[in-house]
């Protein structure tokens, strides 16, 4: 297992997960301190064609607003964004969001790979990618793209995840991924973001 690096302060954090990831997300976001200002963008696999209450659920955990971004909206500091159901969420070169109704990727819409790969193109080494519990391989290729761009790749430890398929797929692809429990991921993100409450 790679030791987790402590690179320059990231400009964005992208997080992906599927089955079982909500518990890990709740740990990551619990009562975030005010000084945690790095924007966080989350893709969680959601039931198709149903309204999502994920933003409201996560907002209650984080103690700050969580919302679905609009097309062409700039990525703003201190914000937590979640991908809307039935859209791929991308980050464009102008550091603005883009919504796409292209075909599912890895049977998923939104797809974690789509977000991770687009964010890697924009933020490069100043990006942190986090892949949590899930039952598919979505996100592994995107996390590899983040690693290849010089960013930091973090995977929830398979033994800590409710569903280990997604973490295992990422570990197999990403040579330098940090493998941590959800609690350790939270502590690491707080350190990277410059908080003293790690």
From TrEMBL:
Residues 5-196 form the CheB-type methylesterase domain. This is protein-glutamate methylesterase. Coiled coil: none annotated. It holds the Pfam family CheB_methylest. SUPFAM superfamilies: Methylesterase CheB, C-terminal domain. The active site is at residues 18, 45, 138. Its EC number is 3.1.1.61. Gene3D superfamilies: Methylesterase CheB, C-terminal domain. It comes from Methylocaldum szegediense. It catalyses: [protein]-L-glutamate 5-O-methyl ester + H2O = L-glutamyl-[protein] + methanol + H(+). GO terms for molecular function: hydrolase activity. InterPro entries: CheB_C, Sig_transdc_resp-reg_Me-estase. Keywords: Chemotaxis, Hydrolase.
């Amino acid at each position: 297992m790679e030791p987790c690096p402590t690179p320059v302060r990231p400009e964005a954090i992208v997080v992906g997960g599927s089955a079982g990831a909500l518990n890990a997300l709740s740990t990551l976001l619990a009562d975030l301190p005010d000084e945690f200002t790095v924007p966080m963008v989350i893709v969680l696999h959601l039931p198709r064609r149903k309204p999502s209450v994920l933003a409201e659920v996560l907002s209650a955990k984080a103690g700050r607003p969580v919302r679905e971004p609009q097309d062409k909206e700039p990525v703003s500091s201190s914000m937590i964004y979640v991908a809307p159901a039935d859209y791929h969420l991308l980050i464009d070169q102008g550091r603005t969001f883009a919504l796409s109704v292209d075909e599912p990727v890895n049977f998923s819409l939104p797809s974690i790979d789509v977000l991770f790969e687009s964010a890697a193109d924009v933020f490069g080494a100043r990006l942190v990618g986090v892949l949590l519990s899930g039952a598919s391989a979505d996100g592994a290729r995107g996390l590899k793209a983040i690693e290849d761009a010089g960013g930091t790749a973090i995977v929830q430890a398979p033994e800590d995840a409710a569903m280990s398929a997604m973490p295992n797929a990422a570990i197999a692809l990403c040579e330098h991924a940090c493998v941590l429990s959800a609690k350790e991921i939270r502590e690491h993100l707080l350190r990277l973001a410059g908080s003293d409450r790690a």
